[in-house]
Amino acid sequence: MSTPPLKTRERLSEVRYEIRGELARRARELEAQGRTLVKLNIGNPGAFGFRAPEHLQRAIADHIHGTDPYTHQQGLPEAREAIAAHHARRGTPDASPDRVFVGNGVSELIDISLRALLNPGDEVLVPSPDYPLWSAATILNDGRPVFYRCHAGNGFLPDPDEIEALVSQRTRALVLINPNNPTGAAYPRALLERVVAIAAKHNLLLLCDEIYDGIVYDDAVFEPLAPLAGDVPCVSFGGLSKVHRACGWRVGWAVVSGDRARSADFRHAMDLLGALRLCANVPGQFAIEAALDGVDTITPLCQPGGRLYEARRAVIEACAASAHLSLNAPAGALYAFPGVVGDAAKGFDDHGFALEMLETEDVLLVPGNSFNVPYRNHFRVTLLPQPEQLRDVFARIDRVLSRRAQA
Ligand code: PLP
After folding, report:
1. Ligand 1 pocket, 105 CB below 6 A?
2. Ligand 1, atom nearest to 241 Cα
3. Distance 176 CA to ligand 1 centre (A)
4. C-alpha–C-alpha distance, residues 68 and 328, integer Å
5. Fold for domain 10-51+300-406?
């Protein structure tokens, strides 16, 4: 009789992270067979030749001294001071280092925040489409994601009335991702003010993922949530991965704002959970001060002539020229989320399409349904490749969709 296989956590069956899932595994197999792929599945700046700014690299080199002990669980004091000062400059009320938590990327802090907050059965309002770590971390910390829809027809902006209608006795927190992954939406101030009012009325913690906070295009403006939230408890997440193109260093932060007394227990819980994992990667923390006190290196990339701007322009133009695609032009972040329309959309299945693109066109996309939406006619690409490469990718996409439209 054979020994039964190891059991794993049951709720993992509810969790998906297809950005690095089955299609990415198949892509590795194809690469092992010698195929050269264009992998558009991950917002991974370093993989597309972006370099972290020199002064950040120097800050790490200058500070490493070989001993590099564990830091305080909330992070190096200098790093936390720089983060607090950065937040104070942009209007976060009462931003101070004791309310800053440095982590191994925003990813770790999302998990820690939800673990600090949730009891079994508690609900978290999560956008759909979402960045799937938010729903995964809610589930794995015994909560239940309740999705509010951000409709393509509404520029992928949430509808505050719909959000409020989903609030129940069990709702504890409301997640915003601004600028948004995967849709590229950037939320206007009036909308954020309405969301804050909902959180205030129903005593919800605002969890605002602002990892793309400097990445906006044309006349879009990034509106930080914490200054608008005022006394309402709010956690704002940021980091070095995207704006500073240093994702492999694994540096993120969470800043708790709002009424101190109301968030005291939550901050103690964050501190305890931070202590259990000792501290964040120390060399990465050395770069925080340089990143936040130094020159703005992301805006030039997002303006006409800048690489991200031109990549975005290439995608917008390719979608406009295709009879099979519709796109809400991304206002921010590093992605486009086109929809397939017309004859090509008949019987369309985003996973099958992504598999076909991989097998026949050497392009790895992420099916839209991976972002917890109830439809299957979207896909996501990252804007990180060179514009010419994106033009070539969209020519291949159009070829496959034209074939499907005629079938
Ligand atoms: N939040 C969003 C919306 C993201 O898109 C990502 C990464 O792609 C993360 C968080 C994770 O960022 P980090 O590299 O800081 O863990």
Report:
1. yes
2. 14
3. 13
4. 46
5. Aspartate Aminotransferase, domain 1 (3.90.1150)
- Torsion angle, CA of 28/32/35/37, rounded to 10 degrees? 30
* Dihedral angle of Cα 267, 238, 208, 126, to the nearest 10 degrees: -110
Question: In CATH, what class is 54-293?
Answer: alpha beta
- What is the SS3 assignment for 291? helix
For residue 287, the SS3 value is: helix
Q: Which atom of ligand 1 is nearest to the CA of 109?
A: 16
pLDDT digits 0-9 by tens, 82-106: 999 999 999 999 999 999 999 999 9
Take atom 8 of ligand 1 and give the residue whose Cα is closest.
43
- Per DSSP, 375 falls in state -
CB 257 within 8 A of CB 237: no
Structure-block tokens of residue 352: 């099958």
Asked if residue 112 has its Cβ within 6 Å of ligand 1, the reply is no
DSSP for 310-362? HHHHHHHHHHHH-TTEE----SBSSEE--EE-GGGGTT--HHHHHHHHHHHH-
User: ipTM of this predicted complex?
Assistant: 0.99
Confidence (pTM): 0.97
Q: Rounded CA gap, 141 and 138, in Å?
A: 5
Structure tokens at 387: 């514009």
In sequence order, which residues have a C-beta less than 8 Å from that of residue 331 and are 6 or more positions away? Answer: 179, 184, 185, 186, 216, 217, 218, 220
Q: How far apart are CA 390 and CA 384, in angstroms?
A: 9
